[in-house]
Each structure stands twice: as C-alpha cells, then as structure tokens.
Amino acid sequence: MSWLASWYPWIKALHIISVMAWMAGMLYLPRLFVYHADAEPGSVQSETFKTMERRLLRAIINPAMIASILFGGLLAGIPGLVDWSQAWIWVKLAAVLGLVVAHHFFARWRKEFAEDRNRRPAGFYRKVNEVPTLALIVVVIMVVVKPF
Q1: How many CB atoms lie within 10 A of CB 19?
Q2: Count of H helices and E strands in the chain?
Q3: How many domains does the chain have?
Q4: What is the full per-residue pLDDT of the chain (148 aa) written as tens digits?
Q5: In which domain, by residue range, is 89 found?
Q6: How far apart are CA 103 and CA 22, in angstroms?
Q7: Which candidate, 54, 57, 36, 52, places its Cα nearest to that of 118?
C-alpha cells in the first residue's frame, strides 16, 4: 500500500470534497422532512418534496457517502498516516458509523414520505436534524485536534 503515499494529496482532496457533499445532503434532507411533515399528503407541495428528497438522496447523498468511505479507507491504508493505537481514530470511526446509521434511517424515512406513510411530526425531524451536526463536530475535532 506504499504506492498510496504518492497519491496522498489527491486522495485527501477527494475525501474532503466527498465528505462535504455528504454532509451538505445529510444536513439538508432532514430539513426537507421538517417541511414535508406539515404538507398535506398528495398536495403539490408534498409531491415536490418527494422529488427533491429522492434526487438529493440518490444523486448526492448516496454517491457522496460511498466516495467518502472509499477515499477515507484509502487514506487509512497509507502506511504511517494513522496511529491505530490512539483513541481519536476509533472515536472518529464511531462517529462515521453513526453517520452511516443516520443515513440509513434518512433513506427509510424518505421512502415512507414517498409512500405517504410518514407518521412523525415536524418536531421529530427538527431534533434528528442535529445528529449529523453533532457527528460532524466530533469527526472534525478528532481529526484536527486529536485530543487523545
């Protein structure tokens, strides 16, 4: 895997770009759910939200998550880049796993909205909207500060 070291700047740049796209979508999708929850099922507004949510998830969030994990995995494979005995990397990976789980729930809820089966109030989605933000904060602190 030492050949990866020569590609480090490109892999890192692509990882940052894909993480930014993933996070943008993960922050926006639950906000759409907030407004969609208050829309009358079958209304023009509801149908518009369905289209926006589907396109956001399929065209941006899903590919960006895959790219983030792929480029992050390549970075982790560069010899000497990560000291696996330090706790920060494990906390970061736990936060990333939390984002993947949140992504899964967002996709499931999008499908419920698409089928007019949402039963959650807008307030629920307002609270859920904070999950990606908290995970992002943890990831950035772990990677930049490496507090432990």
Answers
A1: 22
A2: 6, 0
A3: 1
A4: 678 889 999 999 999 999 999 999 999 999 999 999 999 999 999 999 999 999 999 999 999 999 999 999 999 999 999 999 999 999 999 999 999 999 999 999 999 999 999 999 999 999 999 999 999 999 999 999 999 9
A5: 2-144
A6: 10
A7: 36
